[in-house]
Amino acid sequence: MKKTLIRPTSLAPNSSTPLVSPIIQSNVYVTKDPSTLDKIYNGEISGYTYAREKHPNSDILAKRINLLENSEFGFITSSGMSAIAAVLFGLCKSGEHVIGGDQLYGRTLRILQDDLPRLGIKTSLVDTTNYRNVLESITKHTKIVIIELISNPTLRISDIIKIAKVCKKNNILLVVDNTFTTPLTMKPLDLGADVVIHSITKLLAGHSDVTLGYFATNQSKIFKPIYDYAVTTGLTPSPFECWLAERGMNTFQIRFQRCQENAEKLALWLQKRPEVINVIYPKLGNHPDIKIFKKIFKGNSCNMVSFELKGNRTSADKFAKNANRISFAPTLGDVGTTLSHPSSSSHRSLSKHKRKKMGITESFFRVSVGLENFDDLKNEFRKGFRDLKK
Ligand SMILES: *Cc1c(COP(=O)(O)O)cnc(C)c1O
User: Fold this and answer.
1) Stretch 336-344: mean pLDDT
2) CA 132 → CA 129, 167, 196, 212, distances in Å?
3) Do 371 and 203 meet the contact criterion of CB atoms below 8 Å apart?
4) 241 lines ligand 1 (CB under 6 A)
5) Which residue has the CA at smallest separation from atom 1 of ligand 1?
6) Can you give the pLDDT at residue 7?
7) CB 3.0–4.6 Å: which of 108, 205, 370, 390 could bond 248 by disulfide?
8) C-beta atoms surrounding 358 within 10 Å
9) Residue 266: pLDDT band with limits 50, 70, 90
């Protein structure tokens, strides 16, 4: 009889623990009796029930990011987009209104333009680099303002402090996607935001091998509906991916510092190149939002640099081909430098006219700067510039 029992025990009690978090793939948890299970569901004692609700590896990862963001309630989701979806769909109902930055991440814009309106939630997209645009768009139905602090790919900056004040005064929730800025540069909850979001996929995990997201708040009444939406619709992550991201996060701070140093050096070097018309980096004196930058960024910045070459698409093709050791790939935050060309990728759905208005021409590139030795990186750019228009 004994031999026919399947899984009679799990790990035996042990007097030592592994240094590294184990990967716990189990999708279900065994409890002693119904009353114990009840207590777990009620939050009276800690424990896990079913992996869609949460699991040890997602919990460990959430706690790591909570520490960086000074947040009390954080949760890991299957992607950055599922975190954004959970926040917006979990908090809004038909008849309400959402204001978003007009340069938000492409898929976030799509939720605001297509998905929320389909459910009767009105939306307005505004240039949040001037907080007055937010103020002027508020209606009595406005529930949420969602912003990124550094826009992609033109790296414009929004004044979180002013926007947070406007939101507070009008009883509106401020949601900040902190992916580009990271908690090393900015801690939105400390500055008046109600919810912070990350695409862990990018800088936090840092190795282009996981797709994960995170949302957090310090208010349990806000956390509950977002969490319930994420769990009900199954937006939860796999233990293995959480484990990989936890491993990546061991080096996040040192990676980000190094990427920023390289980014600043690259921006200054690009400015002097005859093949380049324009360089955008928040720390440069000619940045249009330099005042806001100095006020709120406190020395930190980001690892993104955008630049425009002389010439057109032909120059862009030549550059990407010549600099073939810089990966031409539409992502950011990898350990290695990656190059993206917005007009053929992230911003391809916009009309040429709209792109031009934003400054995104056919020879405009966005660089996510990595950890390389700077001289090697510079030499690769130099190789890219070979035979280009000066
Ligand atoms: C990539 C990204 C997202 C989406 O994250 P995924 O993990 O790819 O779903 C959202 N916001 C910003 C700013 C991003 O860069």
Assistant:
1) 96
2) 9, 12, 22, 33
3) no
4) no
5) 199
6) 76
7) 205
8) 18
9) very high
